[in-house]
User: Which sequence fits this backbone?
């Protein structure tokens, strides 16, 4: 069992519900449709990966190197991807767009892809 994956999965899950409600109720009046869609994308990806981390937390052992890499890739990817979107959308809505966050979103996406690729690799090695 990997406690770090379980902790982050639970935290990301709780925050995605909070941010989703925040977006649906408070930001809906401030954001354009495009901005709201972007914010919702961040929330969805955060929740998807919260669920993945919870499942992996019960299946993987963070003391095994590949398992640790998978867990860390999903944690780092979720933080960089979703939270940079939140920052971009909210700062843009306040006419103070934090442009430095723009390149961080695809970097987060790369970490998420890396997590999935490592998971596939683990399956291939384990089941062959």
Assistant:
């Amino acid at each position: 069992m990997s406690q770090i994956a379980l902790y982050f999965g639970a935290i990301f899950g709780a925050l995605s519900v909070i941010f989703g409600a925040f977006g649906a109720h408070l930001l809906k009046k401030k954001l354009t449709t495009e901005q709201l869609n972007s914010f919702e994308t961040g929330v969805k990806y955060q929740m998807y990966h919260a669920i993945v981390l919870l499942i992996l937390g019960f299946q993987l052992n963070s003391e095994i190197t590949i398992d640790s890499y998978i867990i860390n890739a999903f944690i780092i990817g979720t933080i960089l991807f979703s939270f940079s979107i939140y920052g971009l959308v909210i700062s843009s809505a306040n006419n103070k767009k934090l442009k430095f966050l723009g390149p961080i979103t695809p970097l987060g996406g790369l970490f998420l892809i890396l997590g999935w690729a490592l998971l596939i690799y683990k399956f291939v090695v384990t089941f062959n």
Q: What stands out?
A: The radius of gyration is 16 Å. The chain has one domain: 3-122. The helical segments are 3-27, 33-59, 65-93, 104-127. The chain has a mean pLDDT of 95.
